[in-house]
Design brief:
Length: 146
């Protein structure tokens, strides 16, 4: 049972990490290179699609990593679970206000303010990438030492 939980924690955590890093290294820079208006127009549907996938992966990884710890898997599983789980409140508290500003009806999508918000969003999303990468490393090291 614990082996299955460890596998699910690692898979969901690393899938989240891969998606987050892809967004930071590929998708967001590409859209920002298209001009502010196009970047904002493309950001909105991308954000909506990624939200469901990334939130689900983070929550599953957190719950399963925590369960692994509860079943005797060791404190490192709780550390990894806490790291990946922290992206959820970080998103709600820190990133969500920017999301709401970017999605405001009537926003001038080509404005300097929109560009600043998109750039800020990219930097903050990098925090999610770093947290999830650290969680994935903790999980994988624990799995290999397990």
């Amino acid at each position: 049972m614990i082996t299955i939980l460890q596998f699910i924690a690692v898979i969901s955590g690393t899938l989240f990490t891969g998606a987050a890093i892809y967004i930071n290294l590929v998708e967001h820079p590409a859209r920002m290179g298209c001009g502010t208006k196009i970047a904002a127009m493309v950001w909105a549907p991308s954000y909506k699609r990624a939200t469901v996938m990334q939130a689900s992966l983070a929550i599953v990884s957190f719950l399963v990593g925590s369960s692994t710890w509860l079943l005797g898997g060791g404190i490192s599983w709780l550390v990894g679970a806490t790291l990946i789980g922290s992206v959820v409140p970080f998103t709600f508290i820190v990133i969500m206000p920017i999301n709401h500003k970017l999605l405001e009806p009537g926003r001038d999508l080509s404005s300097d303010q929109t560009r600043v918000l998109l750039e800020q969003w990219g930097r903050l999303h990098a925090v999610r990438s770093a947290l999830s990468l650290t969680a994935s490393v903790v999980y994988i090291v624990q799995l290999l030492n397990g």
